[in-house]
């Protein structure tokens, strides 16, 4: 199996970029890129930007899972479109839907947070109807929640908002799901294993993989969208 360093070097070679050009694109120093390429460093707070600049899949680059091909044909900005100011009194546009936003219910990207996902507080988020239709998301099966913790960084930052498709509960290897694990709401990468077991994975390499019986978890739905503030 290839290492992160191997994959990064391959991606850089295929991109045609120099170390200096990559450093400029992601706004870090060239020596920091050199450390990653030489194996002296195995992680970076700019890993999302690096994967984007090299046009490779983030999960492949960080974990070696799936294909290197980046299937995202559009940036998040172009997919979401322009953002207009609105409040609860603003009528919905033709291409807008409102989704329940469980703002006070925390999905922990870490050790978990005990709470009741049905504790609805009346908050709502507006998303594009056409975007949801494109990805096969039924608005009546979608909810939004807040993520806390660092185990899924750099993909999901502490305080990110995620969209959950409650109609998609069948585990597909490498996909990200919201789960209830013995009363703890968590967001994790899942992978099926023989003997009715499931591997629970994190993006953050400081967190070890966990193997549990599938009976120990309840899949609440697949994470299909996220929004976060980058610093």
Summarize the structure.
The chain is of the alpha+beta class and 231 residues long. It has 7 helices and 10 strands. The protein has 2 domains: 60 residues, lambda repressor-like DNA-binding domains (434 Repressor (Amino-terminal Domain)); 147 residues, Ribbon (Umud Fragment, subunit A), CATH 2.10.109.10.
The fraction of residues in strands falls at 25-35%
**Name of the CATH class of the largest domain:** Mainly Beta
User: Judging by the overall fold, what is the CATH architecture of the largest domain?
Assistant: Ribbon
- General form: globular
State the helicity in percent bands. 10-25%
Give the overall average pLDDT: 81
CA-based gyration radius = 19 Å
For this structure, the CATH topology of the largest domain is Umud Fragment, subunit A
Architecture overview:
- This protein has helices spanning about 5-15, 20-25, 30-40, 45-55, 60-65, 75-80, 130-135; strands at about 95-110, 115, 125-130, 140-150, 160-165, 175-180, 185-195, 195-200, 210-215, 215-225.
- The chain has about 230 residues and is α+β, with helices and mostly antiparallel strands.
- The protein folds into two domains: about 5-65, lambda repressor-like DNA-binding domains (434 Repressor (Amino-terminal Domain)); about 80-225, Umud Fragment, subunit A.
- Strands 1, 2, 3, 4, 5, 6, 7, 8, 9 and 10 form a ten-stranded mixed beta sheet that branches.
- β7 (about 185-195) and β8 (about 195-200) form a beta hairpin.
- The longest helix has 12 residues, at about 5-15.
């Amino acid at each position: 199996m290839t290492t992160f360093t191997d994959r990064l070097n391959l991606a850089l070679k295929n991109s045609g970029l120099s170390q200096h050009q990559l450093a400029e694109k992601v706004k870090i120093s060239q020596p920091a890129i050199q450390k990653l390429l030489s194996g002296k460093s195995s992680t970076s707070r700019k890993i999302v930007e690096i994967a984007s600049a090299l046009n490779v899949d983030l999960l492949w680059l960080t974990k070696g899972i799936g294909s290197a091909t980046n299937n995202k044909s559009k940036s998040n900005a172009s997919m979401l479109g322009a953002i207009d100011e609105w409040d609860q009194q603003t009528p919905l546009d033709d291409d807008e839907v409102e989704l329940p936003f469980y703002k006070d219910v925390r999905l922990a990207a870490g050790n978990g947070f005990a709470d009741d996902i049905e504790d609805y507080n009346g908050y709502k988020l507006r998303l594009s109807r056409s975007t949801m239709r494109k990805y096969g998301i039924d608005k009546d099966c979608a909810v939004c929640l807040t993520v806390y913790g660092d185990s899924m960084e750099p993909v999901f930052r502490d305080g990110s908002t995620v969209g959950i498709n409650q109609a998609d509960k069948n585990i597909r290897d490498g996909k990200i799901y919201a789960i209830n694990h013995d009363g703890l709401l968590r967001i994790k990468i899942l992978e099926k294993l023989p003997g009715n077991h499931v591997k629970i994975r994190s993006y953050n390499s400081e967190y070890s993989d966990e193997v549990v019986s599938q009976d120990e978890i309840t899949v609440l739905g697949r994470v299909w969208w996220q929004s976060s503030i980058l610093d």
